[in-house]
């Protein structure tokens, strides 16, 4: 906390935190590049466990995980 009026707080990343931006950016790029494949895999799985595509009573298609 800084000795000012009004009081202020300064934040900064630790050394550990400073190492995060590059791997995080790589993860975001991977997700962006593979989103269609992930969605297709989810759809294949959903179809394998529910081939008729039935929605349980009381749930809409949008209320569940896609």
Characterize the structure shown.
With 66 residues, the chain is mainly α. The protein contains 2 helices and no strands. The longest helix is centred in the middle third of the chain and has 29 residues, at 21-49. The radius of gyration is 22 Å and the shape is elongated. The model has no long low-confidence stretch (mean pLDDT 88).
Shape: elongated
Distance between the termini: 45 Å
Total helical elements: 2
Helix content estimate: 40-55%
Order of helices and strands: HH
**Average pLDDT rating:** 88
* Strand composition percent: under 5%
Task: Kindly state the number of beta strands.
Answer: 0
Q: Mind summarizing the main beta sheet?
A: none
Low-confidence stretches: none
Rg, rounded, reads 22 Å
Based on secondary structure, the structural category is: mainly alpha
In short:
The protein contains 2 helices and no strands.
């Amino acid at each position: 906390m800084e000795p000012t009026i009004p009081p202020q707080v300064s934040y900064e990343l630790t050394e550990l935190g400073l190492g995060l931006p590059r791997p995080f950016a790589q993860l975001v790029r991977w997700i962006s590049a593979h989103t269609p494949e992930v969605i297709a895999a989810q759809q294949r799985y959903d179809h394998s466990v529910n081939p008729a595509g039935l929605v349980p009573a009381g749930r809409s298609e949008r209320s569940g995980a896609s």
